[in-house]
Amino acid sequence: YVLTDLGSINGTLVNDHRVTTKQRLAHGDRIVVGQDEIVISIM
Fold first, then answer.
1. pTM for the whole thing?
2. Which of 23, 25, 27, 42 has the most CB atoms at less than 10 Å from its CB?
3. What does the pLDDT look like over 25-42, one tens digit per residue?
């Protein structure tokens, strides 16, 4: 899975790092969008 921020005002974070290019996601990654946090679980 790959995450891309499409120019959001507040940005998108993966594991506390701002996403500036396509970011490959791995099991356990934490995505923060605004005040929401999503933890990736890949089985």
1. 0.85
2. 23
3. 999 999 999 999 999 999
